[in-house]
Amino acid sequence: MLLAGESGEAPVTPCCSENGDQKKNLKEKSDINIAALVKNEQVCEGTDNSDLPSCVSAFIEKEVGNDLKSLKKLDKLIEQMTESKMQLEEQVLTVSSEIPKRIHSALKKAEESKQFLNQFLEKETHLFSSINSHLLTAQPWMEDLGAMINQIEEIERHLAYLKWISQIEELSDNIQQYLMTNNVPEAASTLVSMAELDIKLQESSCTHLLGFMRATVKFWHKILKDKLTSDFEEILAQLHWPFITPPQSQTVGISRPASAPEIYSNLETLFCQLLKLQTSDELFTEPKQLPEKYSLPASPSVILPIQIMLTPLQKRFRYHFRGNRQTNVISKPEWYLAQVLLWIGNHTQFLDEKIQPILDKVGSLVNARLEFSRGLMMLILEKLAADIPCLLYDDSLFCHLVDEVLLFERELHSVHGYPSTFANCMHILSEETCFQRWLTVERKFALQKMDSMLSSEAAWISQYKDITDVDEMKVPDCAETFMTLLLVITDRYKNLPTASRKLQFLELQKDLVDDFRIRLTQVMKEETRASLGFRYCAILNAVNYISTVLADWADNVFFLQLQQAALEVFAENNTLSKLQLGQLASMESSVFDDMINLLERLKHDMLTRQVDHVFREVKDAAKLYKKERWLSLPSQSEQAVMSLSSSACPLLLTLRDRLLQLEQQLCFSLFKVFWQMLVEKLDIYIYQEIILANHFNEGGAAQLHFDMTRNLFPLFSHYCKRPENYFKHVKEACILLNLNVGSALLLRDVLQSASGQPPATAALNEVGIYKLAQQDVEILLNLRTNWP
Question: From residue 65, how far is each of 71, 98, 169 by CA, in Å?
């Protein structure tokens, strides 16, 4: 067999020096060897050991085959097989020698780890027994030491307790000594220190100590407060406080008494001393709070000296506006609201000039005037909270109360600078029951107002009809009154404290706009037969005015803020699509978009109806003009002067009259849209029904051109500079019909030879044709009869 050669001697290779040819032969031999191995592997793939002879036979058959010349390859094949065998043996020997070494090394490391683990376990056992022995020995000592530590800690607590008592008694003794020597400022300062200690002790669980501390502070606070309050009230009495009359008639300030400097010095001293009692006063005096349903903003108590200054005014207020007094009339809220405004105005100068400098001097951030106003505001809030439930279901009384409260709020904020962040009357009106009633009453009275404004005799007449500069929009009285109503509603609710309440009022406004639009639509339908009449045009002006104003309001900062608030609400409730939310967020749409779209649709429908009406009249007037004998009209050279076709007169007169009529009745923007819509239809009509329906000789074409350019187009020259640009079809048709014969022939040849190509477009543009398509131009050229 051929395989016997494997055990024989390898072929002897010639001995020669290493050169380029040898390297090349070695490389080729290596490639052949690799290829043979690959082929052998492919042939024998998928066979087991029992098929080895057949695999070898198949390999030899493939390499040698039936060709005897292929036997020359045997030497090379034997050499390749020998080299492969040697490589495989080396790999087997290498692997068989390395594996035992690795296994031995792993076993050795495992043995060492086991020994270390045993050593650690022995040490752990010994250490565990030592610790247990030590704990048993130290247990009595630990018990004795723990008991001693507990005793020490208890003694320390007792000592700290006694120190606190000693400190409290020391401060109390100091206050007593200061009062005995009439050193009130130091006594007040010491009381401040005591009150601060009281605040620090609030986290302690020593209830008796806390009680003792609080009782001591309260004792000295009452003594100092009573003494200082008495002295302060005496000084205020010397200043004729409170000031019931306006500042101009007050005696103090006009004729200053000789003792005024001393009085103001004492006022400053007592004010500062009372200010020191503020900390301790807040421990015992809880500020008056209205029920949580009113959602008043959190605010600190009014400072103590201002409270004392407010006391006589509070007494007066309660005397006059509570109980069975004649001044306490539920239908006259303006009485107590005006009284509070009067008191604020009367005392503003004194507070700014005398009290504020004292606060600034001690480094306080309190504004005396606002603090005084805040104290009086609480009287108003309490009064409103008590009165509103009594008149909630009397529409006239409730509406009157709301009106007076809004006037009061406006003056309070604008004149006296009262911040909207402070508690105010709008918080009372925002209470759920009261607010819903307010919305209901607002809607009711708005609808009643809408009924009256639409039924008025002057509903559709503009208030400024005789003033040209003012009456550009030609707004009927009902539309202007309605938008004024919406504006007033906005002013009424824009100072509400929460965005959710404002959004509810915004929905009311949108409902009113929609209701007014429906009413206008109903009136418009009654006037449909007279679509050019005065009332129909007034309705159209009204719709346009409301839409324009709402579009302007959409850019107002107030409504943009409401849009942002609405965006947050919609995002929380998932009531809008992502596209709508994106449009709101990017300011592409506004809170009034729905209403504006409906109004714009109504406006377009009404304008379309007017355009159709005028267009029908124009078509009726153009019947004779359509039947004009364009084929037999004399040429321009045969006429001395070109004149308007007699059959065109009814058309132009009708057009002129309607344009003048609607120009006077519609506002400028509406009329502009109207005549442009009309011109668009008129251009198509003349082009299709008159020009394309006839043939023209030279005279007919010239007459058409004269009628259009010298009579029809100038009708619109008052409304734009180049009216012919709105009659593109007619203008270009006249150009084509009036081209001289040579130019017309040349143009027709170009169109026929370059159909749809750029040269055709260039030729059309050269003669002034831009709108008409090439096919239309060819049709128009064929309408000419003056071909040679």
Answer: 9, 43, 126
Non-local CB neighbours of 611 within 8 Å, separated by 6+ positions:
674, 677, 678, 681
Does the bond joining 242 to the residue before it have cis omega, within 30 degrees of 0?
A: yes
Secondary structure (3-state) at 404: helix
Residue 17 — pLDDT band, cuts 50, 70, 90? very low
271 touches 305 (CB < 8 A): yes
Using alpha carbons only, give the angle 488, 492, 496 rounded to the nearest 5 degrees: 150
Q: Which long-range contacts (CB under 8 A, 24 or more apart) does 493-498 make?
A: 494/558, 495/409, 495/413, 495/420, 495/426, 496/426, 496/429, 496/430, 497/295, 497/297, 497/420, 497/424, 497/426, 497/427, 497/430, 498/295, 498/430
What does the longest C-alpha to C-alpha distance in the chain come to?
150
Q: Return the SS3 of 784.
A: strand
pLDDT at 49: 53
How much is the average pLDDT of 80-103?
A: 81
Burial class (CB in 10 A: 0-12, 13-18, 19+), 355: buried
Tell me if 741 sits within 8 A of 788, measured CB to CB. yes
- Integer Cα distance of 366 and 351 in angstroms: 12
Check residues 419 and 473 and name the one with the higher pLDDT.
419
CA distance 14 to 46: 40
Q: How far apart are CA 730 and CA 519, in angstroms?
A: 42
Classify the C-alpha dihedral 723-725-726-729 as positive or negative: positive
Q: Name the token pair of 514.
A: 């929609």
d(CA 446, CA 486): 9
Task: Give which of 719, 695, 685 is closest to 630, Cα–Cα.
Answer: 695
Spatial separation of the C-alpha atoms in residues 73 and 87, rounded to whole Å: 21
DSSP state of 302: P
Among 547-551, 555-559, 580-584, the least confident range: 580-584
- At 42 the pLDDT is 47
For residues 539 and 461, is the Cβ–Cβ distance under 8 A? no
Which tokens is 107 given?
A: 């076993």
Report the C-alpha dihedral over residues 556, 559, 564, 565, rounded to 10 degrees: 160
pTM: 0.73
Q: Where does the pLDDT of residue 294 fall: very low under 50, low under 70, confident under 90, or very high at 90 and above?
A: confident
d(CA 399, CA 404): 9
pLDDT in tens, 94-117: 777 777 777 888 888 898 899 999
In this predicted model, which residue has the larger pLDDT, 182 or 657? 657
Phi, psi of 784 (to 5 degrees): -75, 140
Contacts 24+ apart (CB under 8 A), 651-656: 651/618, 651/621, 651/622, 651/625, 652/711, 652/712, 652/715, 653/621, 654/617, 654/618, 654/620, 654/621, 655/614, 655/618, 655/621, 655/682, 655/712, 655/715, 656/715
User: How far is Cα 43 from Cα 37, in angstroms, rounded to an integer?
Assistant: 10
Whether 141 has a pLDDT exceeding 70, the answer reads: yes
- What is the per-residue pLDDT for 468? 59
Q: Would you say 709 and 702 are in contact if contact means Cβ atoms under 8 Å apart?
A: no
With a CB cutoff of 8 Å and minimum separation 6, the contacts of 783 are: 691, 692, 694, 695, 696, 737
Residues 6+ apart with CB under 8 A from 631: 694, 695, 696, 697, 700, 785
Please choose, from the candidates 453, 455, 457, the residue with its C-alpha nearest in 3D space to the C-alpha of residue 485.
453
Give the pLDDT confidence score for residue 575 in this predicted structure.
60
Q: What rounded mean pLDDT belongs to the chain? A: 86
696 SS3 class: strand
Amino acid at 289: Q
pLDDT at 757: 67
Tokens 């030879």, located at residue: 753
Distances (CA, A) of 404 to 294, 333, 444: 19, 7, 18
Mean pLDDT of 711-731: 95
